[in-house]
Amino acid sequence: MNKMKRLDKSNNRKKQVQSSDISGNTVDAMQPVNLEKSAKAMDEALATAAEHLAMLEDLHQTLNAGLAEQVKTEKARLEMEISQAADRAICATQKWQNMQLSKLSGLDAHFTSTHAELCKVKARMDVLDNAVQKAKNVQSVPLLKHYSDLDKILETLQAPIDKESFNMKCITMGCGMSVMFKSKWGNQSVDLFLKMNTGKPNSLSVVPPCLQQQSSELAQQPPGQAHVQSLASSHGHHSHGKAKSPLRSTNQRMSPSRSPASRCRSPTPTRGGSCYNSKASSQVGAVETQNQHVPAGAPPTGPELAKDKRRSRRRGSSHLSEQTKNVAQKVVVTHVVNPTHFYVRYAAKKQESDILSKEINTFCTLDASCFSTADNVRNGSILLAKGKEGLWCRTSVLSLFQNGHDGSVEICPVDQLGHVRIFFIDYGYTKSLAIERDVSNAVSSVNNHLRKINPELVRFAPQAVRCSLKGLVPYDLSKGWSKRAQRAFCEVVGSAVVGMSSFGQDRDSLLVDLSKDPVGPPNDIPISIRDYLVFIEMAKFYYPVKPSRRLLKYYSSVVPRINVEHNAVVTHVNSPDDFYIQLSDNMESLLLKAKLQECYNDKNAEESLLLYCPVIGQACVARFDENMWYRAEVIGNPGYRKVDVFYIDLGFMTTVLVSDLRKMKDEFFYLPALAIQCCLLDVLPLAGETWSDACVKRFTSLTHGKLFTITVTVKSSKKTPLPVKLLESSPTDSPTNIAEVLIQEQLVCSKTGFKTNMVSDDAVWDSPLELNGLGPLELNAGAVVEFQPRLNLPGSLKEAKVRVSHINSPSSFYVQFVNDDSRFKRLNELLKKECELVKLQDVVWKSNMFCAARANQIWERGLICSDVSSDDTAEVMRCDHGNKVKLHVSNLQPLPASLEGSFALECSLTDIKPAGGQPTWTATACDFMHCNLSGASGLITVQELTDERPVAVTLMCTNKTGEFVNVSDYLAYEGLALRERKPVELSVPPEKPNETSCDANIQAETPTQAAPPLPAYISKLHFPRPAPRTIKAVEKVQTDLYKTPELPQLGHNRMTISAVSEDGLIYARTDTAECHLENLKKMIHQRMKTQPNQKLYTWKTVKGCAVIGPDMLWYRGQLLEVLGGHVKVQYVDYGLVENIPVVHVYPRLLCEDIPQLCVACQLHATNPIGSIWHQDAIKLLDEMLSDRLVDVNVLMLPTDPRQPVTVEIFLDGLSLSTILCHHKHALFDQTTPPAPPLPPAPILDIWDIDTEGLLGPREVMLGPFTKPDLPEVGEQLNVRVRHLQTPNEVFLFWEDMAHETVDGETLQECMTRINADVLSLLPLTSFPLGGPCLAEYSDGNYYRAKIMDIISAEPVRILIQHVDFGSNDTVPSNLLRQMPAELLRFPLQALKVRVAGFKAPSIQTEGQVLPYCPEWSVKATQAMIDLLHGDILAEFQYDDTSTEPSVLLFNQEGLAVFLPLLASGLAQLD
User: What angle separates helix 112-140 from helix 302-314, to the nearest 10 degrees?
Assistant: First the structure.
């Protein structure tokens, strides 16, 4: 009946197709009707396909469950036999047992029949799913039906599912293995071995309950009826009514049996075991299956719902299908038609293939294999024929030609066979045989070429699998695949074993990618055949596939240290802001170059290092010259067998042939890239943003391939070129700066050059920073000099060195004379001594009174400007600086009359007046002077000194280039001031030469300044050098150390670590010093704006100094050692020690009144390993402490404040000494005496302060929660599980809990009322363990909870337990509130119990376990959660030894809920 139905459907389908063809030739008016019919037919086909998918999924799930049951049953039996055999082997029991049990991990591989059926069902599902997807595409875009095989899609969708074609009996069979124990005793030894008998698979003793019905139905069939069939006899069951071309018939017969083989193993070729059925794997059933697996009454749901069902069922399917996807396998390519049509054989089945070949050739030696005159040859039958190596192989007949007939026939007698075309199913190639006709004996001619096959040999799966390289199309689509592509594919693959990765299936071909294993270095990546064919332009990607392996990269180049001279060679030049250098100080670069040439010029190793398919980003070795090899990286693919590479050790790019590339060995990765990208410091293009060709050529001729001395002065990111200075050494002259040469030749301009003919627009006035009072040492040590607190000036001053201290306007500013620095320092010492000893006095401060004022923590002289205000604040002018500040009267002290006076002189600029005709100076002019002159040094000239203030002066300051500029002239040039015209009659003749001289000087400076781009270089080259003794004159200087730091108090202090020295000293700053550091930076920035003119000094007498740091800012330093052209200095406010060039050090004290801000500390009773601190320990200390605020316990203060302080340092409560000892960097010194006890805390003054009303209400400490009333022993209740902690520890809830009331209100009603006004509850401020509280949940409501633990302090994270549910949560403190006391009267609504009857397994075999309870696995917990859904019946039991009640839990069927856990081995009986 089923066959008749199928024939009727086939005829109807043919009629529909014919009618559609006829209608397609009619007029266009009939097309809408045809589209509606096609859409209707498509909908019906999709509904049918959905039902078929559901049926296939049921079969797939049943087979998966059966496979799991097979493995479990057989594994249990074999474990028992192994254990029995192990008991007999007394001396080697445990070792033997563990070894044999480990072999059972791959037991599922022995159930080959079940695997085959699984693959068949999965293959059919994939085919049907593919057809559904194509149908949906056609349905959404009707025009696609003209470009797709609509008939084939409809045929696939409507093809019925024959359940009988799937061998369901395979899940009732065992593996056929059994254990036999044998022992051989000797005098001193015993031999044990395990013999696995692989006989005929036996039936399982226990059949899964869910499979009993289906297994019984299968058992009624004759043995082998649905499982063992011949391929030749089953050929007639293929689709009807189709013309059978050789390719089509081959695909129909061979592809289904090959495609499953790509995803699962083929059966082992044994005589007595279960064999593979090629018919069963390729046959599409012809019997319609009833919808017995679909719920009754369910309407057709279509492919959309079918897909959803399949997804949901696949979640619980066996892990077999997941493990078989995307697994790389080793194969051998047997035949290639083109890159998208070739055949492979699995290398793992070589032994099986050899056994099959041996059996075939043995059978061909028998007479039973020969044809007789009564035999016929049928089209599609399986025969034996001689292959390429002369061995007999299995073949499938594609076409037959009988003598005397023009076309092919379906069946032919053997003695009339003239020509036959066969396909070798184990190799994949096709062959045509012409039978030589022998009139006397025609059968013998056939037997020379063909033989009959033993039916047992038909059952072996075909060994050749048809494959296609995924996503490849011919390079020229119009010509298709060329012979060159086939030859290239065969050449790169050859006969070697290659890796194959599967990506899916397309009809009868596996979509794969082949990878050839590397034969060179171990780091080499496999060669992708797809990428290789695309690279040699034999194919194109239809869509790319991401590489499965990351490429190895070179280490980044090492940037030279800042402010250190290095020797380097310029290897490549693109422009002055883009060139590459290679440091010549590194000897490893020379060794690398020699080893590269030695390795890659070796002809013997050339073949193994060839690079066939380079990819972008791959590291390689490229040929640079004829026999020179350098490290490179592939950066582009221009085609034509060429690639773009970048030589990482030379710094340039080029295009080379692929034949000039070699694989990179591991040993050449250890050195970073040697080429460093650089740019020339402080130069800019002359015109715009591009460099001229003349500039690039000149720069290249000056630098390329030459040795230079480079200096890096500023840091830069890794993505930008490194700014460097290039200095070319000369044996007879000073080094030549390449930047200066380019500037002189007017090929570039300097970033600091002038922009106008007058003065630089961005000129910043600053003095050459001549030494402040560091003249010749004319004072004798024993001479007594009377201190002069006032400013004593001669009648006239000319070019006196001053420092601008404060600016109000060009007509009012204050200067300090440099010669008074020593007196100023003496004054500060006297004021400090005088004021620190005097107690605070109550003084009525009036205007114009002198005082001692404490500003910036330093005592200075001041003058009261106005009476004290009501808030005890007075305006005080700093006498020695000129500016005014507001101070509290507590910072004021009476000043002795002997110290009254001032070192600041108020001045005004001469010969200028405010611009715009205004009597006062504009804010712009005042701000301009303040920004550019505050703290700057200069020269003043006073023509006549009178008692009038301010004094009219001429002020000269320097700009960035070090040239002196008249400030008055510059203000007039900027338009901020006007020249003051003086009447002729008032002019004094003697002053005219001076004015003329001054004007002449200005006019003489103008041409020099106007010379582009930097006049200093022009004058340097065109004018003779000064006398050598003038240049090399050494100026004797002497500076003192900065003031000693203020030591912290004994006890605990919060300090910031600034540096760690090489001798293990730790430098730290207190919080007060941190505040002073910011003010100090601002003061230094105001005084020091540019680098001063460099001179030669006697550094031996210099202690304190000013240092230019790496960020080009000034810092206070202390000179430690002179090292030739460098000096070793320490930053006194940071503790850091560096070696820097002499040009970055200036012998002057900056803000000498401020003491050092960092304190040296040493760890108490902590000695380094080996008595010296190693580099690893210093690095660890630097990583842990740098710029970190830590707790420092000061134990002992030194007598000398410059000596280190003995301290203990704590990091998050952990002692730093303990950390160092733990890492084996230090040892505790047991001989060191204990630290002296800390002085008692000072007694604080007793303040009569009323604190009433300041403190909030105290938090009420609540008691514990009350437990619910427990049922009686043996009482059974319907309960629900609210939370599961472990499989045998749960929280239960029953209905009586919810109905319990307090004052007529349930807990739920009370919580609803409280959540409505939860903001009125106070936040929780006390966190005792076990304390009750209200905690906010993710739904925004608050629930009762108790505190379990405090997880962290920063940020605060608290572990709480929701007592009415049993679950734990980690929340911040702001989500906790104080719980009203009325909620304690309600008992808990979640009772923690212990589930009796089972416990965790003694041997844990699962990989994932619960982190808080490792005895239980995650799998067991998930299984228990599934078993506890719904209502559970609980029987309570009590044990006096346990604080938690124990219960027995039963499901609705009355069975213990834990039984499935016992059956699956996830638990054991208790």
Answer: 150
Check: CB of residue 50 under 8 Å from CB of residue 306: yes
Confidence band, pLDDT 50/70/90 cuts, at residue 645: very high
Helix, strand, or coil here: 360?
A: helix
Residue 1331: pLDDT over 80: yes
Sign of CA dihedral 326, 327, 328, 329: negative
Q: Do residues 741 and 702 touch, judged by C-beta distance below 8 A?
A: yes
**E strands within 1200-1306?**
1205-1211, 1214-1215, 1226-1228, 1276-1286, 1289-1293, 1301-1302, 1305-1306
Mean pLDDT of 118-129: 84
Residue-wise pLDDT tens digits, 136-146: 777 766 655 65
- State the pLDDT at residue 307: 37
Which has the higher per-residue pLDDT, 301 or 689? 689
Write out the H or E segment, with its range, that includes residue 502: strand 498-506
- The per-residue DSSP string of 1345-1391 comes to EEEEEEEEETTEEEEEEETTT--EEEE-GGGEEPPPGGGGGSPPS-E
Distance separating alpha carbons of residues 637 and 643, to the nearest angstrom: 5
Beta strand pairing call for 873-878 and 884-888: antiparallel
The candidate with the shortest Cα–Cα distance to 473, out of 367, 375, 338, is 338
Amino acid occupying residue 536: I
Q: Which residue has the tokens 């709480």?
A: 1360
Pairwise CA distance, residues 97 & 659, whole Å: 57
pLDDT at 222 over 70: no
User: Which of these, 130, 175, 179, 171, lies nearest to 152 by C-alpha position?
Assistant: 130
Asked whether 1416 and 1372 are in contact (CB, 8 A), the reply is no
**What 3-state DSSP class applies to 65?**
helix
* Least confident window among 34-38, 187-191, 982-986, 1039-1043: 982-986
- What is the chain's alpha carbon radius of gyration, rounded to the nearest angstrom? 49
Is the CB of residue 339 less than 8 Å from the CB of residue 331? no
Give, as one character, the DSSP assignment of residue 119: H
CB of 610 closer than 8 Å to CB of 754: no
3-state secondary structure of 574: strand
Give residue for tokens 């460097």: 724
- 797 forms beta bridges with 942
Q: What are the φ and ψ backbone dihedral angles of 721, each rounded to 5 degrees?
A: -60, 150
For residue 1146, give the 3-state DSSP assignment.
strand
Q: Provide the pLDDT confidence category of residue 1067 given band limits of 50, 70 and 90.
A: very high
Q: At what angle do helices 31-88 and 2-24 cross, to 10 degrees?
A: 140
- Separation CA 493–CA 516 (nearest Å): 7
Q: Is 403 exposed, middle or buried (0-12, 13-18, 19+ CB in 10 A)?
A: middle
pLDDT at 1088: 77
434 CB burial (10 A radius; 0-12, 13-18, 19+)? exposed
Tokens of residue 458, six digits: 């038909």
- Would you state the structure tokens that stand for residue 945, as one six-digit string? 């000194």
Report the DSSP beta bridge partners of residue 766: 958
Per-residue pLDDT reduced to its tens digit, 1096-1142: 787 878 889 999 888 888 899 999 888 767 888 999 999 999 988 88
Residue range 145-160: mean pLDDT, rounded: 74
Do 1082 and 1072 form a contact (C-beta atoms < 8 A)?
Answer: no
Tokens representing 812 are: 């009012």
Beta strands in 714-857 (DSSP E): 722-728, 736-737, 748-750, 797-809, 812-817, 850-855
CA angle centred on 1241, ends 1240 and 1242, rounded to 5°: 110
| Residues 820, 772: Cα–Cα separation, whole Å | 8
CA 812 vs. chain centroid, Å, equals 61
Instruction: Please tell me the distance from the alpha carbon of residue 1286 to that of residue 1458, in angstroms, as a whole number.
Output: 13
**H or E element, residue 46:** helix 31-88
Residue 987 and residue 301: Cα distance in Å, rounded? 114
Q: Which amino acid type is present at position 1349? A: D
